[in-house]
From TrEMBL:
<keyword id="KW-1133">Transmembrane helix</keyword>
<dbReference type="GO" id="GO:0016020">
    <property type="term" value="C:membrane"/>
</dbReference>
<dbReference type="InterPro" id="IPR052185">
    <property type="entry name" value="IPC_Synthase-Related"/>
</dbReference>
<protein>
    <recommendedName>
        <fullName>Phosphatidic acid phosphatase type 2/haloperoxidase domain-containing protein</fullName>
    </recommendedName>
</protein>
<dbReference type="GO" id="GO:0030148">
    <property type="term" value="P:sphingolipid biosynthetic process"/>
</dbReference>
<keyword id="KW-0472">Membrane</keyword>
<dbReference type="InterPro" id="IPR000326">
    <property type="entry name" value="PAP2/HPO"/>
</dbReference>
<dbReference type="GO" id="GO:0070916">
    <property type="term" value="C:inositol phosphoceramide synthase complex"/>
</dbReference>
<feature type="transmembrane region" description="Helical">
    <location>
        <begin position="21"/>
        <end position="42"/>
    </location>
</feature>
<dbReference type="GO" id="GO:0006676">
    <property type="term" value="P:mannosyl diphosphorylinositol ceramide metabolic process"/>
</dbReference>
<dbReference type="InterPro" id="IPR026841">
    <property type="entry name" value="Aur1/Ipt1"/>
</dbReference>
<feature type="transmembrane region" description="Helical">
    <location>
        <begin position="199"/>
        <end position="220"/>
    </location>
</feature>
<dbReference type="InterPro" id="IPR036938">
    <property type="entry name" value="PAP2/HPO_sf"/>
</dbReference>
<feature type="domain" description="Phosphatidic acid phosphatase type 2/haloperoxidase">
    <location>
        <begin position="109"/>
        <end position="247"/>
    </location>
</feature>
<keyword id="KW-0812">Transmembrane</keyword>
<feature type="transmembrane region" description="Helical">
    <location>
        <begin position="226"/>
        <end position="246"/>
    </location>
</feature>
<dbReference type="Pfam" id="PF14378">
    <property type="entry name" value="PAP2_3"/>
</dbReference>
């Protein structure tokens, strides 16, 4: 499969019309490959200490409480679906929709700028997660303050309830095989939502209420599903803002 993908990639560079889409996406491919390759890094080359308490402690200091714990305390299947939509569906689909909008309605090179900013932001986020491993709220819910190690598998958190609703084992198996389990900070769900909305606002300033509402929706969903602390979300948005300003 890897050889086939490599051949398809090299072939795409020889087709002018396809190359217009592939070249702007090179930073994104670099991020995805880096994320996938994290699982192959030997333990000797990974940080020895995994931070379990630093994020919830900072959360309580900065915001006066563990917001993720408060938001996720009361669950209901309607709230599960409402959180799943941005976190598990729109998050993966909207980058393609926005890319098409930028290509059709944006100024020349706008799509290339978005691809670079989006890819490098996510790459910086993954490298931060790799060098500064932090446990997510679901870890605190299951293991408390017990020391973490790299033998621990990822958990779907609140998304496990979506598996129950849909009768699937999608998120349980996906997060259980995650190549980067301790990647709570920064939240790339927050980063992606923020940078997408910044470019959407750039394309159509009148949509600013939608941009703010979607970002807040994503923030709520990540905390409700016990995947991130508030400080992770702020960190992800800062990464996005820096990438947008540099681009």
């Amino acid at each position: 499969v890897r050889i086939i993908l490599a051949c398809l990639f090299m072939t795409s560079l020889t087709i002018p019309y396809v190359r217009r889409f592939v070249l702007p996406a090179l930073p994104i491919f670099t991020w995805l490959i880096t994320f996938y390759a994290c699982q192959f890094i030997p333990l000797d080359y990974r940080p020895k200490h995994i931070f379990v308490n630093i994020l919830p402690t900072l959360e309580r200091i900065l915001y006066g409480a563990n917001l993720s714990e408060i938001i996720s305390k009361h669950t209901h299947w309607t709230l599960d679906l409402l959180a799943w939509l941005p976190y598990g569906v729109i998050h993966f689909a909207f980058p393609f929709v926005l890319s098409l909008l930028l290509f059709v309605f944006g100024p020349p090179s706008c799509l290339k700028v978005f691809g670079s900013a989006f890819g490098f932001m996510n790459l910086a986020g993954v490298l931060t997660q790799l060098c500064f491993p932090n446990a997510s709220p679901w870890y605190e819910n299951i293991y408390g303050s017990s020391p973490a190690d790299y033998s621990i598998k990822g958990e779907a958190g609140g998304l496990s309830r979506i598996d129950d609703i849909l009768g699937l084992q999608l998120y349980g198996s996906t997060f259980g095989n995650s190549p980067l389990v301790f990647g709570a900070f920064p939240s790339l769900h927050s980063g992606c939502a923020t940078i997408e909305m910044l470019f959407l606002f750039y394309l159509c300033p009148k949509l600013w209420p939608v941009c703010i509402a979607y970002t807040m929706w994503m923030w709520w969903a990540t905390m409700y599903l016990t995947h991130h602390y508030m400080i992770d979300l702020v960190g992800g948005s800062i990464y996005a803002l820096i990438a947008f300003c540099i681009a």
